[in-house]
Specification:
The structure holds two protein chains of two kinds. Chain A is mostly helical. Chain A is 72% helix and 0% strand. The longest helix of chain A is centred in the first third of the chain and has 30 residues. By secondary structure, chain B is mostly helical. Helices cover 72% and strands 3% of the residues of chain B. Chain B contains eleven helices and two strands. A two-stranded antiparallel ribbon of chain B has the order 1-2. In chain B, strand 1 and strand 2 form a beta hairpin. In chain B, helix 1 packs antiparallel against helix 8. The longest helix of chain B has 32 residues. Chain B is globular, with a radius of gyration of 19 Å. Classes of the chains: A mainly alpha, B mainly alpha. At the A-B interface, helix 4, helix 10 and helix 13 of A face helix 3, helix 4, helix 9 and helix 11 of B.
């Protein structure tokens, strides 16, 4: 029984962390219409940033600054924001496909650099991170439960922040630009600046998710920042319904459950020679989920509720 | 250094072939097609299958055309594979892109292309296995062209370069001398006006996929001939090919040719100063440099 509960806590922690990243993508894609092809890069910068800033010194590695945990987590988010700002500055004024290609390129370059630079962990990744409050809470179930609560609080905080943001004048501006850029411009708004703000904000949220992920495992390596994570996060958003944060969270839990369940089923029931191909089978499945949703239900399972005006809503 | 230059030109010719089709589709359908590089994989594997078939039908076909490792059967397989890959590109468009296009968003197309790429890449891995394959098990030794500076060239590489240039020259003739070429340029300039003058847009789209797929197949086979064939061939080439289209300017076919050579050269020259592990990141640096210096590429036009 305790085994099941502890697994559920583990599952819910990872799914909640991913939900935060999916909401960050939702701000970029769902609310602003920006295509981010390299989610994993911003996630990864947050993860590496947090561990480098908050870890203990390791021989031959950069970092080990041993900053207080929350400061390290925040630092990771800032790093993700800086990378996003640089990429956004170069591409956001151009045709939308440049952003897609450039962000995809960032992810490839990031993984390559992390894998080859020994000072940043190299292929071995970064170890030597003390999880916060480990002495007080121990290493077992209590710790995982407490960490889950911490992640949940941040998930709710992110959710409330984004909902407030979307209801605010800035949120209306985002949707206005997404729907009709020329009209927004004619009202004196600067689409590229607003887009850049949204892109950086979304990437900072992905950085937060990355930082939490790295904290949870107390370890990060290039294997954790492969392009497949970008696809998973997209599939979660597309299934949930772009533009809707509740849908984003539900889509995350749904897809993550399907992903882990299919992986488990394949490793349990498939013959040994098929197991080598578990990854390929799962990737094909997630490809079909993305293409199928776009073909048959592009608005997602929980579509965005479009309102003409916030004040025109009857229950407000 | 000179070795890097020569290798760069050879890789560049393969990238150019891939980039031509990509830039045409991107210009016409206005989306970044992340599944284009998978057409190279389809082409490479299709040729592998046809090569085996021809070799089994007639053993004489399986003889290498010395000094190349290329066999007669592989040359025939190349042509068939180009046709088949072109057709697959048309079918993928019919099944997925056309329908997503009809529903709206250009960006949904980009999503869809990622999904298609995942499906193709991993299907190929499931069918042919994850281990790299070779067209020929014979070892063809590189020829020492000069000892100082040291320069090694394989006969297959020379063949690849010549064949790629020949294919591009034929394409150039088609584009500049035939009605189809003129229609294509008309559609690229102004799709609505072209349709008014009686050009069938959906037929042009089919033709673009056919040509793009065919060129991609040739690129895939040449890559397989000079390196190896593996399911991650598309994954490894997608960024360099995109870099080539951006260097040349999206929509410019001649730009894509030049862009391919420039990216090939730059990636190989980068190895002089960088450890080889970093080479996958080089195309990204090229993209960044172009976006800073000349956002619309060498021959691209300004368009939003």
């Amino acid at each position: 029984m305790i085994g099941v509960i502890s697994y559920l806590v583990f599952f819910a922690t990872v799914a909640s962390i991913l939900s935060i990243a999916v909401m960050g993508l939702n701000l970029q894609w769902g609310n602003t219409g920006l295509f981010n092809g390299g989610v994993v890069a911003f996630f990864g910068v947050g993860a590496y940033g947090t561990l480098i800033l908050g870890g203990t010194p390791q021989a031959g590695q950069l970092g080990g600054f041993g900053l207080p945990y929350l400061l390290a987590l925040f630092g990771g988010m800032v790093c993700a924001g800086i990378v996003a700002w640089i990429v956004g500055l170069l591409t956001i004024r151009l045709r939308h496909d440049y952003l897609a290609i450039a962000t995809f390129g960032v992810a490839v370059a990031f993984e390559t650099v992390m894998r080859n630079t020994d000072a940043l962990g190299g292929a071995q990744g970064i170890r030597g991170f003390e999880r916060p409050l480990r002495e007080t809470l121990g290493n077992g179930f209590t710790y995982n439960l407490a960490f889950f609560a911490f992640v949940l609080i941040l998930l709710i905080a992110t959710y409330l922040f984004l909902e407030r943001l979307i209801q605010s004048p800035f949120g209306r501006l985002l949707r206005a630009i997404r729907e009709d850029e020329a009209a927004a411009q004619s009202l004196g708004k600067s689409p590229s600046r607003v887009r850049l703000t949204s892109f950086v904000a979304g990437s900072v949220i992905m950085g937060l998710a990355g930082g939490l992920y790295a904290t949870f495992y107390a370890f990060i390596s290039p294997q954790d920042v492969l392009p497949i994570l970008t696809f998973q996060i997209w599939a979660m958003l597309i299934v949930g319904g772009a533009g809707n944060n509740k849908g984003a969270v539900m889509g995350t839990f749904l897809i993550w459950a399907a992903w882990t369940a299919s992986g488990w089923a394949l490793s349990r029931f498939a013959p040994l020679e098929v197991q080598l191909y578990t990854g390929s089978i799962q990737f094909v499945l997630i490809g079909f989920v993305i293409v199928g949703m776009l073909l048959w239900r592009p608005q997602g399972l929980f579509p965005e509720k479009l309102v003409v005006s916030q004040s025109a809503r009857p229950n407000k | 250094m000179i070795q890097n230059l020569v290798d760069g030109v050879l890789v560049g010719s393969i990238l150019s072939l891939g980039a031509i089709g990509l830039t045409m589709a991107m210009h016409m359908l206005r989306f970044a097609n992340f599944s284009h590089a998978e057409l190279l994989s389809i082409g490479a594997y299709a040729a592998l299958v046809f090569d085996g078939l021809f070799g089994a039908i007639h053993p004489a076909l399986a003889k290498a055309i010395l000094p190349l490792s290329l066999t007669w059967s592989l040359s025939l397989a190349l042509l068939l594979s180009m046709a088949l890959t072109g057709l697959s590109a048309v079918v993928i468009d019919k099944l997925v892109f056309k329908r997503v296009r009809a529903k709206g968003g250009e960006l949904s197309m980009v999503f869809a292309s990622f999904g298609v790429a995942m499906i193709i890449r991993n299907f190929l891995g499931l069918i042919f296995g994850l281990n790299p394959k070779l067209y020929s098990q014979d070892i063809v030794f590189a020829i020492v062209v000069s000892r100082d500076p040291f320069l090694l060239i394989k006969p297959d590489q020379v063949f690849t370069l010549v064949a790629a240039l020949l294919i591009m020259f034929i394409l150039h003739l088609v584009l500049s001398r035939t009605t189809f070429g003129h229609s294509l340029r008309a559609v690229a300039e102004n799709p609505t006006l072209a349709q008014v003058s009686g050009i069938n847009l959906s037929r042009m789209i089919v033709l673009i996929w056919l040509i793009g797929g065919g060129l991609a197949a040739a690129a895939g086979v040449f890559y397989g001939l000079t390196n190896q064939i593996s399911p991650v061939l598309g994954r490894d080439l997608v960024l360099p090919i995109f870099a080539a289209t951006i260097v040349g300017g999206i929509g410019s076919i001649y730009g894509a040719v030049l862009g391919g050579f420039l990216v090939g050269l730059a990636s190989n020259l980068a190895l002089v100063i960088l450890p080889s592990g970093y080479s996958p990141a080089v195309p990204f640096l090229i993209i960044l440099a172009v976006l800073i210096l000349r956002p619309h590429g060498l021959f691209g036009e300004e368009r939003t």
